[in-house]
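Hi,

Apologies if this is the wrong queue. I'm a grad student, and the batch job for BMP family ABC transporter substrate-binding protein from Candidatus Lachnoclostridium stercoripullorum produced an output file that my downstream script rejects. I'm not sure whether the problem is my script or the file. Here is the sequence I used:
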Amino acid sequence: MKLRKLMALTMAGVMALSLAACGGGGETAETEAGGAATEAEGGEEAGGEATDETKRIAYVVGSLGDKSFNDSGEAGMEQLREMGWDCRTIEAGDETQADTWEDIMLDAIDEGYHYIVTSSTYRDIVMTLADEYPETQFVVFDDSMDESEIPENVAFIFYAQNEGSYMVGQLAAGMTESGVVAVNVGMDNPVISDFVTGFINGVQDYDPNVKVVKATVGSWTDPAKMKELCLAQARDQNADVFYQVAGGSGTGLFEACVETGTWAIGVDSDQYAYYKDSENPELADVILTSMLKNVGDSLVNFFGSVEEGADVWGKVNHLGLTDNAVGYVDNEFFQENVPQEVRDKMAESKEKIAAGEIDVKSYYDFTDESEYQALLDSVAP
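Support response: The file is valid. Your script probably expects a header line. Output copied below for reference.
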């Protein structure tokens, strides 16, 4: 074990004792001392003994149960388990437990997991560990960077979320009656800003008179705050179609839409289907569609490429509409509630984007943050 890891664990124990002494509660102290991670079912018992020690994957994720991004990745792990991979899912907790994330990955490496798979949230940790553990291979999905800076044992998977968001932006513009729609996010980062940029582009291309309001929750796990933001946007700005890009916080958006009688657009997975089979099926009945980011499928395809010896390391692997990596849900509820002309426009755009006939705006095309802010300002009510 690395010396600095041993020191970090010692410090965690000291912090835990301090928390207990200060009235922090026994549960918090135990979590800090014992590690923040909780493990989802899986591994060798769920997937069968791996035939090759290099077929071992540790999927490090904030938490499952978001009915969105993280769960989509877990669906991919389930498929890989069925294909003979030894996949362990580690729930690392939210941003309040960030000081434990590196140790969680170190533990997975020490336990012999050859691949560490995680999202852009953990990129800085991955870049540090990749240098220290050249025999371990790391996959960072939903992120991009200059390929000249990517180590040979790291692969990035980047999705064209702006393309999928463009089409649901058209939907929002086609469904609004007030002329104001909203896009609310969990945290601000380049990937999320790319969602927002594509959404605004789609709204404006469909109807340049439609305005867009945008708000940030500040967390992926605060549905109560999300609900407050949406209720305020409906009350004060007349927003009547809401797009959430907020992980677990997104539940609050759906709750607000039920309360206000407005429409919602989900993200990453088919959130209509998730909620229809949940303890809160009424939330499904406001979700017109979801912008799909097929994380699970992309991870399955990625490791299929690895087995085939494809050139995936030390680079950014770009996935978009042409790879079926992004899109939107076209289910019965969508067809029943969205006018034919709007659905036709979305379908037409899907074909044109895939064919290169529509070049969707991307946050990554801006020269600096001020250009992105200018876009937000230009569509504000």
